[in-house]
Amino acid sequence: MAKVDEKNKGGFKASMFIFVLVALENMGFVANMVSLVLYFLYVMFFNIPTSANTLTNLMGSTFLLSLVGGFISDTFINRYTTCLIFGFVEVLGLALMTIQAYSKDLQPTFCYGKPSCIHGGDAVMFYASLWLLALGSGGVKGALPALGGEQFDHKDPKEAKALARYFNWLLLSTTLGASVGVTGIVYLTTEEHKWYWGFFISTVATFIGFVVLALGKPFYRLREPTVANSPIARIAQVITVAIKNRRLALPGKPDELYEVGEDEKGSREERIPHTNQFRFLDKAAIVPKYSEATPWTVCSVTQVEEVKILTRMLPILGSTIIMNTCLAQLQTFSIQQGNTMDRHLGKFNVPAASIPIIPLVFMSILIPTYELFFVPFARKITHHPSGITQLQRVGVGLVLSAISMAVAGIVEVKRRDQAHKDITKPISLFWLSFQYGIFGIADMFTLVGLLEFFYKEAPIGMRSLATSFTWLSLSFGYFLSTVFVSIINSITKRISSSGHGWIRGLDLNQSHLNLFYWFLAILSCLNFVNYLYCASWYNYKTEEPDHTEAKAKDLRTGPLVAEKENTLDGVTETYEAPSSVQTEASTQQLIK
């Protein structure tokens, strides 16, 4: 892989272009996240559960499709080009939404008693625009964080600290852009009922953001991927060869496993030391007799360790899904709650979908405070570049998300009780600020922690795919919200004496949304216990060994031996490996 002159490229000078794109793109994206449920409810005439599920399905699809962007940018084209291609798709989806919101002829008429009133050509255009938006936005999210991350060399102590700051400033850029979106754009759409203006502004802002990204090309460090180093292919090779070699006995010493030499053509950019977890996969690095050393007959220790790293990440990924299910409620049911509350601030009528400005303001203040004061202080104590480890940061967010859901249930009881007493005097919208504020702080810890964790722990050739795991967690969280709403409604309808589920069609005052929130709070507490186990089990990746000290062992000076266990008669057969294969001593103890 060709080396790029990095002296005048990369760093925060290059990242500034990325920060601008993130701010402009999230201006529309976050505004749509918090307000589309009302667009589906009052313009497209979906009922409450269907509008909530449509939004969670859209967001789930968006974050799931980040895997596509991550895979493409790790395999076929660089991350910069990937962002521009998917950016065009995203702008196209927003443009179609603008056209449909502008033309009354492309919108459905109201129908009573149905989950949705849209059909025919209107439905085709509606769902096509949503899918284009999901594909474009998801693809960008899969490649953009890693594009910024590769502007910093994590092996350089100064740039390692800068990499930790990069993810904090990335979240701050998102927060600043989102703050404009949930105030200005949301006010236009939900209060002035000019949905087409909101979508048009989002389209233009996103387009300008990608123009700015394109202008920054001379400043970027760009890594060109190759199909031969495709993450999916490398993972498949390890699993396939390990299964083929399942009857072979592992050598007594890990340094007898296959590893390519430093100067061998096609060598990866990093060497990952052997670890003792998932020893079954080590069988992919054994070379049996008469086997030709090809990617589908033998894998290097580094390649096996790449698969081990991704496998170790999966429990961490799974432990954050419930938190993102909680996030989905703040973008659906909490917005619908706010729409029934007193939204006056003096003479000004605050849009219900603008209430997320409260956690965004918190985050805009806390992120610089965290970065400028807490991190340097914690760094002196822990000697960790980020102040605290990424998994510790994620754990703090999980605790706060459980508290947020418990508070949300209490606020809903107060809101509903007041509605039953006197529906003309609802409680203030700002009661929702408690659950939003707590969850905003939780998101600050968890989102950045996950992005940095997946990026730093991932092998170099899989960093886009690995950072997409953050969005994959969000995707599963949104889809799980849809599943929970549907299943819990179905079950509670059957066991309730009234025959109604916890969340009724068009009337929140007759629903039991508080019970749903408390269900999620209890689930979050159980999930945190599971997370503690997964985090304590996880071993952080060791740094790559110094190549000047690493010495590859040529098999011409000594044969590699593979033992095959005959499980029928207990006989152990011994084979001499081909002399063309090289090995390297690469055992290092994992560090926490």
UniProtKB/TrEMBL annotation:
What UniProt keywords apply to this chain's record, in alphabetical order? Membrane, Transmembrane, Transmembrane helix
Task: List the transmembrane segments.
Answer: 16-42, 54-72, 84-103, 123-148, 169-189, 195-215, 350-370, 390-408, 429-451, 471-492, 513-533
Enumerate the InterPro entries for this protein: MFS_trans_sf, POT_fam
Q: Name one GO molecular function term.
A: transmembrane transporter activity
Entry annotated with the keyword Membrane: yes
Task: List where in the cell it is found.
Answer: Membrane
**Family of this protein:** Belongs to the major facilitator superfamily. Proton-dependent oligopeptide transporter (POT/PTR) (TC 2.A.17) family.
Task: From the Swiss-Prot or TrEMBL record, give the protein name.
Answer: NRT1/ PTR family 4.3
